[in-house]
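The passage that follows is intended for readers who have already worked through the single-chain material. We present the inputs for a multi-component assembly, then the predicted structure in tokenized form, and finally a short commentary. You are encouraged to pause after the input and sketch how you expect the pieces to fit together before reading on.
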Amino acid sequence: MRTPAQNAHLALLLEVASTPKPGNVDRHRDLEDLRFEHFLAGAVGSQHGLELAADGAAIGPAFERAVAGMAKQEGDNTQFGALLLLTPLVRAAVTDLSQPADLSQSTDPSQSAVESVVDETTVADAAAFYRAFEHVDVHVADPPADMAPLDVRRGSDAIPALEKRGLTLVDVMEQSVPGDDVAREWVTGFERSFTAAERLASADGPLPDRAAAVFLSLLAERPDTLVATKHGEGVAREVTDRASELAAQDALSTDRDAVEVFADDLVNRGINPGTTADITAAALFIALESELVSV
Amino acid sequence: MRTPAQNAHLALLLEVASTPKPGNVDRHRDLEDLRFEHFLAGAVGSQHGLELAADGAAIGPAFERAVAGMAKQEGDNTQFGALLLLTPLVRAAVTDLSQPADLSQSTDPSQSAVESVVDETTVADAAAFYRAFEHVDVHVADPPADMAPLDVRRGSDAIPALEKRGLTLVDVMEQSVPGDDVAREWVTGFERSFTAAERLASADGPLPDRAAAVFLSLLAERPDTLVATKHGEGVAREVTDRASELAAQDALSTDRDAVEVFADDLVNRGINPGTTADITAAALFIALESELVSV
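Having made your guess, compare it with the prediction:
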């Protein structure tokens, strides 16, 4: 049996190994300055933070530690969003809600368990989340004017404003929706992650092939928010429309070349749907931890 | 900074990600029942055993734990030989020889340090090594008649014979040479692993590309002992001759297609030079840990 922290680590590895994952680094594709090995090293580096989450540390500091470790490779940001999903999911997998003090029992990570985990986050967790941005460059949108003091890119400089407004980490996530579908998972009980885990379970073939199919299905259902932030809503919509056509014809089975062409095209245009990859990693964790799938 | 156990873990991941690695699972190739994701899960599973080695546990039990964790995936044996090299190397990286009791200082893993580690192994370490064979199917040659009671395939049934003869783990390794080039590393101060680490340092390009070049150079210099055991000395010699021709012309730079053809040919014939991959993983660890290379 792997521990929840190990399953989270393996989910990160399986996510990047799955191919084709249009626009992202995958088993068959590197980006110019962001290569496969950076993701391997990022996953290894995140391990101690994920273990902290499993051992009962507060979510914010565990996440910050995971990010600090992840960032110790030369590709800079590889798995920030994925870790923001995995940290509370790992905690949910070791929390027996009937006995909140008992972290020794591993349980399937349920939506209600992870909702409780995020609802219990504090202002201190939010402060640690802001500190995490000092370890790595994360691409985010400009906040609205009244939120400028809380721009995550200010890192720990934003903490006094955070404390003044008394915002917990889940409050910060609520402020980030819409426009950030990782944050959206936090406020919707990780709805898409759990649905995608079910899709992984019902798909056929080796797990990386299933993950590629689930990635395409996620990309087809909502425009990727990282693509929207970097390239605009129009491009994000175009990518989703194309993914939607391919998913509708089950192209990974019926016309794999078409998906490969799509993947190469997005890589060439520098369009990487990173949010969709983050949710794929979360789904892999849920499916592994709940033994819906195996490797 | 990654810990020695994390660098060992990353070495396993980089080894399998390197391509082309003729005959082996690599970033671009799976074998029929042994796929890339099995190696990812094997690396994750081995983590706690590698941590035991770093924390000062005896080498035999740490290795057995690493193998037991590695084997918890559906491809069966992925990294047995690599772990047999990495376990003493990890210990050597945390052992300050001037202060043997101090495991808190990380040092470059030197040949003399790892020689001391293997020289200090005991009969109990050998017993744990035999138990490790119960977790996984390892392809080994038939032992000579006088060694039949010590056939590793007997697992813990061989332990009484082992204890009667008073054989330590390094003694068992000495008995396995010639015919097993992983064992040979144990009795030669990990000579080829350290030489290969230097080659990784002096090669150009991303680390997985360097590892592929070093794999080819290792395959060119000595017939792979796993190939000899499975397919005979003649086949092992043929593979080495072909690797030697390709290495001599620096084919990975000058005629990469020729190496890819060689790789596909070996995969199609079921010839996997696993021992050479094990030494490549050991070299990656030494090079990472000594900061000769970075990711």
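Commentary: Residues 4-204+277-289 of chain B form a domain with the Triphosphoribosyl-dephospho-CoA protein fold (CATH 1.10.4200). Chain B has a mean pLDDT of 94. How closely did your sketch match?
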